[in-house]
Amino acid sequence: MKKTPRPAITLNQVTHTYFTKKEEVTAISDITFAVPQGELLVLVGPSGCGKSTILSLLAGIYKQTAGQILLFGEEISQRSKCTSYMLQKDGLLEWRTVAQNMRLGLELQKQATPERIEYAFHLLEQMGLGQFAHLYPSQLSGGMRQRVALVRTLAVNPDILLLDEPFSALDIQNKIVLEDLLVEVMKEQKKTAVLVTHDLEEALAVGDRIIVMGGRPGTIRQTTAVPEEIRLLPPLKSRSHPVFRQLFEELWREVERN
Ligand SMILES: Nc1ncnc2c1ncn2[C@@H]1O[C@H](COP(=O)(O)OP(=O)(O)OP(=O)(O)O)[C@@H](O)[C@H]1O
């Protein structure tokens, strides 16, 4: 009998409370879901419902107050190097060139071997930035900077990408190009990802599955599997598909209900 692979991510009844000097804030309550290997899961929901908290827990920045989180069936502490985090702010170091920025994660993880650096240059080419490796971030457009940030995130060859509104500061054209690149790289390299976004079109264009969260503390309101007829289309094309428009309206209503 064929063995089912372990999910890349498992959350079992996870609750997280932040304890500050002034107050206690329960950000998420009783969250349970699993992300199979190779899936791009999207979290949407109103501000403050705990989406980023889930990414922080997956990155091991905080330890959940209750419940269990597993990465490939193991506790996060055992798998600390399998995730890579990308944020809305590109976080590029202005005094380092594109190539030097791209190597940063590898250097920090003491993985800057010739093979890994070659792989990073391959990614840079794939993102259309091969000829810009010697430039400094200030010489790049916003879209180019975010592509470098995506290369840096991927260069450490993580199993799981944690993407917190990575394209939200970009204009629509750059956003769609980067969404396209993300989907292409995800498929080619069989990565697993959790993407947080406020943009429901982005969620539908890149996601395999979408979780709508709501409330304070945040809970799961609805899970929607994006149908294949949309998933198989590149993000730009999928946007004009009638099923896409219909799902967009359904999701919109669900998020608005919060
Ligand atoms: N480090 C922290 N310390 C204390 N409270 C926090 C911390 N981080 C988040 N919170 C609180 O936890 C709740 C959930 O925040 P979180 O950032 O996870 O929500 P979100 O859904 O990602 O919001 P947004 O969409 O605005 O980014 C909020 O009430 C927030 O104020």
Question: In short, what is this structure?
Answer:
This protein is an alpha/beta fold and about 260 residues long. It contains 9 helices and 10 strands. About 35% of the residues lie in helices and about 25% in strands.
Protein architecture, described:
Pfam families: ABC_tran. InterPro entries: AAA+_ATPase (IPR003593), ABC_transporter-like_ATP-bd (IPR003439), ABC_transporter-like_CS (IPR017871), ABC_transporter_ATP-bind (IPR050166), P-loop_NTPase (IPR027417). This is ABC transporter ATP-binding protein. GO terms for molecular function: ATP binding; ATP hydrolysis activity. Keywords: ATP-binding, Nucleotide-binding, Transport. The chain is an alpha/beta fold and 258 residues long. It has a single domain (9-256), classed as 3-Layer(aba) Sandwich (Rossmann fold), CATH 3.40.50. Helix content is 36%, strand content 25%. It contains nine helices and ten strands. It has helices at residues 51-58, 98-108, 114-126, 142-155, 172-189, 200-206, 228-231, 235-238, 242-256; strands at residues 9-19, 24-35, 40-44, 66-71, 74-75, 83-87, 160-164, 192-196, 209-214, 219-225. The chain has a six-stranded mixed β-sheet with strand order 6-7-8-3-9-10, with helices on both faces. It has a four-stranded antiparallel β-sheet with strand order 2-1-4-5, with helices on one face. Strand 7, helix 5 and strand 8 form a beta-alpha-beta unit. Helix 2 (98-108) packs across helix 3, helix 2 packs parallel to helix 4 (142-155) and helix 4 packs parallel to helix 5 (172-189). The longest helix has 18 residues, at 172-189. The chain is globular. The termini are far apart. It binds adenosine-5'-triphosphate (ATP). Adenosine-5'-triphosphate is lined by residues 18, 20, 25, 27, 47-53.
